[in-house]
Records
---
Amino acid sequence: MTTIYDRGAPGRQAAALPSLARPEQEILAYIPAGLRRRERPRLPEVSQPELVRHYTHLSRLNYGVDTGFYPLGSCTMKHNPKLHEDLARLPAFAGLHPLLPEEEVQGALALLWELGEYLKGIAGMPGITLQPAAGAHGELTGMLLIKRYLEDRGELGTRTKILLPDSAHGTNPASAAMVGFQVVAVPSDGRGMVDMAALRTALGKDVAGIMLTVPNTLGIFEEDILEITRLAHEAGGLCYFDGANLNAYIGRARPGDMGADIFHFNLHKTFSTPHGGGGPGAGPVAVSEALVPYLPVPEIVREGDRFRLRWDKPKSIGRVHPYFGNFLVMVKALAYILTLGDEGFREVSAGAVLAANYLRVRLRGTYKVPYDRLCKHEFVLSGEGLPVRTLDIAKRLIDYGFHPPTIYFPLIVKEALMIEPTETEPKEVLDAFCEALVGIAGEARERPELLQRAPHNAPVRRLDEARAVREPVLRLLFDSPQA
Amino acid sequence: MNPYIPHTPADVRAMLDAMGLPDVDALFADIPAEVRRRHRPLGLPGRDELSVHRYLAGLADRSSGQELIPFLGGGLYDHFVPAVVREVLSRSEFYTAYTPYQPEVSQGTLTWMFEYQTMICELTGMEVANASMYDGATALAEAALMAHRTVGGKVVLVPRSLNPGVRQVLATYAWGADLRLGDVPYGEDGRLALAEVPEGTCALIVQQPNAFGVIEDLTGLKDALGQAFLIVYANPIALAVIEPPGAFGADVVVGEGQVLGNPLSFGGPLLGLFATRREHLRRMPGRVSGQTVDAAGKVGYVMAFQTREQHIRRERATSNICTNSALCALAATVYLSALGPDGLRRVALLSMERAHALADRIAALPGFRLAFSGPFFHEFAVQCKRPATAVAALRRAGIAVLPPQFLAPTGIKEAFGVAVTEKRTWEELDRFVEALRGGGRK
């Protein structure tokens, strides 16, 4: 694969800059001699046409939502509305410095406050912070809130455990561990839901809280959710809800009504902001009344038609972001909320759940569906029973023009394929995807090597992931001096 | 009809029929009735595109700060972003993709990540870099956690000259992980004055240049630390002209990458830089792109060392980070490619040239002095009797600076901060000086 370093020639530059008024050496003299940079950093030297062609070329090696169907489970790869890109480029949003005095940034604060109010309403919870920059950052914020809450109540030394269903996202245990909590797994039962007997056994005076994903990563709504949160609260624990799967019920149910104490949103999932090739996202956190005093500072407060920053919150965990969170992502999320309104939210969850169930029903004759019941916005197939691995099925899907689903997750399903179609795919695409998966199952039996060598129709053939670890090359090494 | 949802009533009917369900509500029968009954809508009607655009553009216009000339930094800086950066970023094959879990259809992302890692290593003088963290502050906090994991010890030494906002985030993470922050004072020159390294120290943090804009001398610090980490929070533009931390034995270099081709964005999204030594690779947080070959022997890229990460290692992962700041890292990659070594150096020198010219002229005004004698890059603290009066005078001239309350936590008295980038014109510098001369004294 050609990198930008393979292009260009010494002396080329893709952007013209103003001249210095004085000789370079005079300016460099402001830096003490021993601290001046000695060797030039090896950066590309390319003209603008070369630069543009290189990155246009790279873009064409990528598959995005704008390229085609991207049913990556638990990631909610829905359409990213184009209005949002325009709005985020408005100079008064994109060019605004966050350390300007609050009276100079009233528009930005108004936007954040308004988004916060809507998110509180969607969660059915009274408190919000917009600072977390991603879902996992929201989880970490939630764990810090639990720690502060326990500290405030003198229970920090005794409540040390966080319960986690065995179907949880990997970020959940990692977030709990960053705040020093001990992670205890709670098994799922035959329905794919939390095993209630195991939960009762695990709950005790040493439990700080439980992290739940609703619906869970099998796409199944925890039907006992009210009982789960009641039991957890009775035991003195707090209930954290991972909001990655909010697309399943937005506009129809609220985590606050299910007993959630902490709930994180993923604006880059449910609220349609682009995933950016891995970010940036945003992970605002809503909380119940008991946790409001601990929320990060500053709080954005409305006073009449003015907005100000409130810092005097002695019980706050402090800041989790150096400014206000991923503001431009929030601009897009607010635009989405305003476009949809209540009716739009209901259409979103209806469309997402309809599409997932439709695919499940169409595919269950071909693939094993370990928990074959009404699902929400996603469901999990298993590649078990076929003479190939799930990885091979995923790679073959690429040849059919689809992005593969999430694979080998959740861990409780062998050879898992986790499929989340979202509400933004036409029925024709869903049908074509089913036909591809049915065709692939046939190929798996007749010509397994076809799958094992897939993809055949991608910018590269199957890549050797083990080699990248065995013989790590994590940057260009410039073995030969730069031409 | 909702422009983002293609299902017609006939499509919905056909799909429901395929499942044998009477209506859409039947899809939600598994949500407890009590929960559904409690639901309350927002009372919000949907709107058309034009009306949403008008509404948000109206909100944007309510920020008077957009009209001010930004001579304020405090960690984020108003550098020029060549148009080519935004053009590349608007390729939706980049911005509508996610984490490159399937490398065969993500070579675009994985290749630029590899390029980016190379560039960050070159700038910082380090051996490996990850493909981004949320922002400089959380990158620094993660570096402190990594130091603790690697060498033990619960004390993180933090200079009082560290950016106060960054320090607040670090303090939150440190409290979460039961680490303690120890203060390191600064001298008359504004540089950190490390007297001793207490027992149990796992890291010393140095900001380069620091919150006052002063260039730190990293010589000898790693020797004083022994096993403990030297963590440098660096401005990557300054590294075009300042010797990189890698040359002084830094264990981790982090920093705020906003300056590399990203707008101020009211403080987010930002870009956390993270680079370290090869020996620490397996303890590093975040995604990494690695070179490999495909089945035909062709060079390609994959996510490497995923066994460090949360989706594999769970509670034993090096961090919980998953979604990061990929698109901002792409902006940095394109920005650095567009400027090249000469262009980046020019940006650094232009900023310095103008910053020093302005500082000299301010220091020559009666009643004003530079707070520190140490060498500085493109930002400096100005002291005067009534900084609030000076800031107000500048505001009347349409100029914004870093207010005294931002710098107050560092212990500096009666000072405001001034940052100058290549975007500030000589006329704007004149205007700045005139404003102070006219109304900022006393």
---
Amino acid sequence: MTETLTPRPASVSSRRAIRRRRRGVDRILVVFAAPAIVLMTVVLLVPSVFTVIISLTKWRGFGTDVAWVGLRNYVSLWQSEIFRTAMLNTLILVFVGGAMIFAVVFFMLIGLRHMRGAGFARSVVFVPMIISPIAIGAALGFLLNPNGGVNAILAAINLEGLRQAWLAPDFVFRMIVLGLVWSVSGYYLAIVATGADQIPIDLYEEADLAGASKWQQFWLVTLPLSWESTSVAVVLWLISGMKTFEIVIAFIGTQGTPPVQARTAAVQQFLATTGGPDGTPQLGQASAIGIAIFALTSVFVILARRILSRDRVELS
Amino acid sequence: MSARTLGRAAHVVLTAGLVTAMVAACGTQFQEDETGDDAATAQDVTLTYWSAWNIGEPQQEIFERLAADYTDETGIEIDVRYLGRDVTTNLINALGTGTGPDLFDAGTRNILDLHERGFVANLDGLLDQEVPGDGGTVGETLAPSIVAAGSSEDGLAILPTYITSSGIWFNAARFPELQEQPPATWEDFIALLDELKANGEVPLGADGSVSGYNMFWFLQAMMRNGGPGSLRALGEDAENWNSDHVLASAQMVQQLVDGGYFQQDYMGTQFPAAQVAWANDEYAFMLNGSYMGGETAELQAEGFEASTFVFPMVDGGYPTIDVTASGLAVNAASENSEAATDFLAFAAQEEYQALYSTEAGFMAAHTAVEVPPALGPLAEAIAAAEVTTGSNDLAPATNPGWWSDVMNPLDDALFSGSISAEEFVAQGYEQTATYLENN
């Protein structure tokens, strides 16, 4: 005699009860999710679909004809040396600038752990994040103009040979990278530190007793145990870095058009959206740039999440 | 309460709300005139104006005074929103969706675009309208070149209130002889720069981080060598780069760069550092807009007398003067267009137009208003101009993508000295051909 492995069918009444429960859950879901779904549809989905459609057209905005051009805006971007430069600049900012930002974050995590007044130091590093770009632009103008503070200091300490036109088109992008690192490092330090602050102090005491250097303590204790907050910070940086805009305008000023050497993809999108000084909007191209930035950012975020995902370290 | 009952109740409430809102809206928009008079009284009209100026700027203060006097005179209120320079994008969207204001700022640089979109009312009738109090018509207060600068192909598009141009700025207290006898030719100008340089002075100042200002030199050279439309033509057909006047103009810019006439590290100078230094008498000349005198008025060194002369002439060249008119436009879809046009006639009074000269330091559009002394030579040139062009030869207005992606970067490269005049022309040809093929 063999036993049947077929599960016993649920009774009709219990199946109805399950369905009723499911219906109940669905109804509650609909009631609570509906406002969010409607809101997201109106403010996100519809504009996004509209942007994709506009990116396939040549359109200067209300009052002008819309011409369907298919993928021509994308082909044009691909062939545009200006856009390629802007995208390359963006990638340099994201990866080189990003490496510098997280180097600052990690060095500060190592340095601040044993420092008195670490909280105050963290606040100081965070301050640039809350300064308005206009103020940053004014300060940078004062410091980096040919007759500004930096060249004056170099002259005062007999290093006039290092004098530079720091804001000239061929040099300004390097200043923008440094300015960005200076202005946002505190923000990412604050995020990563939320994880690092949870690490029990006795782990470091044990590491000290075992003779681990500060560097080894960072690699073997701090980084693994704050991996989640670091991953979040990296993803946030990828998203934010790909949209870098304000800091470029802060360096160049609002009076002029940023030189090609300093443009990012977002700046190029801004120029297409507004038409630049005296110009008219080119919304098709601006939308195509927006889609390109979004697509590339999505790829980076997905890759980053895959690369950075690992099992959570649990302390027993 | 069951879900169905709740849904029904919500439906009733929403419907009632919608009906109430519609009735209220009708009450606002279409309420009957209790007097039975078809024509709206002045008190029923409120004009709306979106300004490109910010609170505290002289133009904002001028408008405030004008609007207050107009309301006192007619009872018509003017609802103003000072939105600053970012108004343009919002304005186009609002005008396109029928929610735009009755009045807005416009000028030569965007009249063609706004007209093409059907957003600006034709103001030809305003020219024949009497200016209240002053006698005479609005048309009689404006020079023909200014009316042309404020018009689209279909007629007047704005009430011009002030005009801008560009010229070479200098301190008349330091160079009194230039007031009577400015350098007439390019060769004279270069000789003057050489003389200053030999004396250890800095002949030219430039805020090199502003590509629009860097462009002034090539633009003016083109307007002399190729005449109006020659710069705009470079973005229309790559072959136009092969015209002799393009290379000749680029060589003039290269001559300035190679001559070392600009201040040290001029390409790294962030606006407004160079014009502040000029006002402090550190540089002899700056080629800039007619607005620079007003912008630096409070920074000028003691005894400084700002003045201008027009860009020097070249052999067989064109006496082109760039004239950009700015002023107030009326929304083509405005329901208050009659009141808005009446307001413009009121604004055309000499009393108000004079404020653009005395308070803002501009050349007022009104012919009877005296220009600021610094702009006398430019104003004379404009009044006598037979050959005029608009802002940047209207190139950015007609071809914005090419302007920001090809022309501006190439001009910056030429102006910085990183490419020669010949390379400028060759790259201009190549990049324009590629741009036009892809766009």
